[in-house]
């Protein structure tokens, strides 16, 4: 392994820059040539890459987004796209690649590894929807952003005796909603993993707490549930409490990464290069039970992520 590349793919996540920094610095310090590939697999297919050195990654550890940019590249899902990428790797002498992204990006890394270019994937997504790891890069920052935003929403919700329905990201998963929901003391948390009855689990809970003197309410809804706008109208009609909906949107994807995300990304980036240096590819780096470990990508993609029902129940028991 003489030359490695690094790319970020799919939705960006805070901490991707810290991961790029760790890859570049570990590679350079171990005598490797490191190429930064712009805009994910699109840049790989198009040969859009540049040589990086220790100073190329100065002053990025605290920045959100990704200095390498990111993209979604439908062409990479085809055999033709993979073949083009392999040709580019051979042409520029790329011996291995670190891919930072979500499970879609992992599939690309697996296909490229099978085609002869060893890839190591790092979980980079705010959704934390990757089964093989307890934490993904960006998740902690996004949760903290949500909590910060909802704390502000709470101020005005309380002043007006209102109910705020807040939609948070997570794609089809409810991990962001569950944990942020606990942290803001939401009256109800709706997630795709748990079936709900709006009348009982939202309106009913609000009525119950109204009887104990509660006058303002926060309802956290994962985007995978849908119909958030209509929820505020239903609540207002059913409870008489004036209601508003806020869709937090892409504010959740930006911002300076938290300590946890910076450290996680740094450890994972370093670990990935050490794997490539041993000519080991087709692996995902993960964080399990306080340790950094790695799995076969195929195995990782087939794992099923559990949803912590105990915490879900606890959240509702204490937010009443
Ligand atoms: P994420 O990595 O955040 O899950 P996507 O699902 O959009 O985001 O995937 C990012 C990119 O990974 C896609 O645009 C595509 O280039 C590549 N990719 C996704 N799925 C596959 C697949 N089945 N085979 C090969 N490449 C894939
Ligand atoms: O996967 C990260 C994420 O922000 C999801 O939470 C969301 O569903 C999706 O990406 C939005 O993607 P975009 O707006 O970039 O297409």
What topology does this entry show?
Layout lengths: L2 E6 L7 H14 L3 E5 L2 H7 L2 E4 L26 H14 L3 E6 L1 H12 L4 E5 L15 H21 L3 E6 L6 H10 L3 E3 L7 H14 L5 E6 L5 H12 L3 E5 L11 H19 L5 E6 L2 E6 H5 L7 H10 L2
Parallel strand pairs: 1-2, 1-4, 4-5, 5-10, 6-8, 6-9, 7-8
Antiparallel strand pairs: 2-3, 10-11
Helix pairs in contact: 1-9, 2-3, 5-6
The structure holds adenosine-5'-diphosphate and 6-O-phosphono-beta-D-fructofuranose (F6P).
The site of 6-O-phosphono-beta-D-fructofuranose has 10 residues, from loops.
Q: Short description, anyone?
A:
Helix content is 43%, strand content 18%. It is built from eleven helices and eleven strands.
Textual characterization of the structure:
With 320 residues, the chain is of the alpha/beta class. Helix content is 43%, strand content 18%. It has eleven helices and eleven strands. It has helices at residues 16-29, 40-46, 79-92, 103-114, 139-159, 175-184, 198-211, 228-239, 259-277, 297-301, 309-318; strands at 3-8, 33-37, 49-52, 96-101, 119-123, 163-168, 188-190, 217-222, 243-247, 283-288, 291-296. It has a seven-stranded mixed β-sheet with strand order 3-2-1-4-5-10-11, sandwiched between helices. Helix 5 (139-159) packs across helix 6 (175-184). The chain is elongated. It binds adenosine-5'-diphosphate and 6-O-phosphono-beta-D-fructofuranose. Residues 9-11, 41, 72-73, 76-77, 101-105, 107-108, 111, 125 line the site of adenosine-5'-diphosphate (ADP).
């Amino acid at each position: 392994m003489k030359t490695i590349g690094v790319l970020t793919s799919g939705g960006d996540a805070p901490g991707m820059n810290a991961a790029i920094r760790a890859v570049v610095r570990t590679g350079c310090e171990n005598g490797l040539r490191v190429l930064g590939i712009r805009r994910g697999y699109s840049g790989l297919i198009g040969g859009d890459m540049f040589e990086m050195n220790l100073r190329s990654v100065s002053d990025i550890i605290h920045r959100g987004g990704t200095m390498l940019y990111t993209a979604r590249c439908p062409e990479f899902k085809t055999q033709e796209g993979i073949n083009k990428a392999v040709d580019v790797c051979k042409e520029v002498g790329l011996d291995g690649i670190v891919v930072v992204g979500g499970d879609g990006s992992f599939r690309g890394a697996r296909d490229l590894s099978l085609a002869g270019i060893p890839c190591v994937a790092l979980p980079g997504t705010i959704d934390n929807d990757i089964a093989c790891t307890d934490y993904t890069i960006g998740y902690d920052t996004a949760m903290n952003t949500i909590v910060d935003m909802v704390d502000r929403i709470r101020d005005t919700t309380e002043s007006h005796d209102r109910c705020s329905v807040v939609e948070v990201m997570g794609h089809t998963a409810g991990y962001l909603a569950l944990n942020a929901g606990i942290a803001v003391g939401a009256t109800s948390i709706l997630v795709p993993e748990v079936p709900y009855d709006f009348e009982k689990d939202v309106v009913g809970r609000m009525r119950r707490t109204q009887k104990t003197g509660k006058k303002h309410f926060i309802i956290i809804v994962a985007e995978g549930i849908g119909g958030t706008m209509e929820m505020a109208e239903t609540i207002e009609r059913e409870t008489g409490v004036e209601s508003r909906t806020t869709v937090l949107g892409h504010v959740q994807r930006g911002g300076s990464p938290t300590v946890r995300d910076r450290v996680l990304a740094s450890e994972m980036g370093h670990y990935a290069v050490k794997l490539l240096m041993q000519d080991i590819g087709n692996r995902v780096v993960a964080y399990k039970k306080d340790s950094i470990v790695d799995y076969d990508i195929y195995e990782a993609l087939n794992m099923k992520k559990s949803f912590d029902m105990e915490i879900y129940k606890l959240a509702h028991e204490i937010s009443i």
